[in-house]
Amino acid sequence: MTPRDDDELAAALAMARSHGWGVRVVGAGHSFHDIAASDDLLIRLGPGDESRGSGRPTGFTGITAFDADSGLVTVRAGTPLHLLNRLLDDLGVAMSNLGDIDRQTIAGAISTGTHGTGARYPGLAAQVEAIRLMLADGSQVTCSAEQDPGLFAAARVSLGALGVLTDITVRCVPAFVLAADERPRSVDRVLSELDQLVADNDHFEFYWFPHTRRTLTKRNNRLPADASSRPLSPVRAWLDDEFLSNRVYELTNRLATVVPRLTPTINAIASRALTARSYSDVSHRVFVSPRRVVFREMEYAVPREALRDFLSAIMSWIERSGMYLPFPLEVRFAAADDIWLSPAYGRATGYVAVHQYHRLPYERYFREVERIAADFEGRPHWGKIHWLEAETLRDRYPRFDDFLRVRERLDPDGMFVNAHIRRLFAPK
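^ thats the sequence. predicted structure below, dont judge the formating
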């Protein structure tokens, strides 16, 4: 069901309590597994008015408050990131960092630990200053670093297991322009210069194409406040981001599915097809890229100092495995944060995301990456495929049991638990 306001949401939770139903909340449905699935009551926050209007909320979308002096913006939890970015543009502010996909709702993005890249910049949840959520009994509570800090440490990345997020206050920064530099480089050179590349750029990431020694590197750096932008021409943007990266890439993945032995050749061509380019634009237009080719994904976070060895172990296994993998691996970086279930909790972090085209089998590949990640204290991205359970997760997250205690206090009857959450948070 889709409640239109807080009263209807409270009524839905009351109905669930009276019937003994479980409740899950779904955002954009962007996760790769059943984190939001429910056999009982599934709640979708929104829909909202996605026009460029005033930002007044319709349903659970829109901006409800803005303080120009502090940069604090309060947004309804069901607001998709692509709408939020446009509304922030109108206010002259921006999120300080974003991932490369903007289809998620703000609540779904922070609840699963979504992040961008940049060694000095933590994930999206670390940009949150306060959260208001509705609990299983229909009451509402607000938490922040000053007001119930324990709940705040748990609620920013909560997998929807504490209650229903209704309002999120984000600390934004003045709108800024990013200068983007994207170019192919050999993987050996990237790995040998990795520390310098990460340190010298505000936002650095790279993609390695399996069965080749080629990468595509992306360096995004912030320009002075008065800098003008030099966006890609509409023709170049369409050619690179729509035609080559989506339409042609879909066809090459289909070809690799039909004739697997062609995959190394296809990857070698793909790694050279996107030629070097430099441009600058409003930050979210640089951070975000269109992704229309359907795939499955797993992502693991490891200590920053272990990233090179972790990636090398995966690359070595791929060479030995006999598998053909047409999708590149994505490597990103993030600062440490203090959020209990954040994959970057307490440590500077390197992320490696592995993908498989949706028409090809992925389980053998992903399970091997998960096995390798265990050697490096890897923590999974909560919105992507993994098979870890409570016993293992407890060893990877120092505040895991603290989170469980907060969960038990807020939802003692397990209203917000489904089979997936039960597997993750089974009592000790």
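The chain is about 35% helix and 25% strand.
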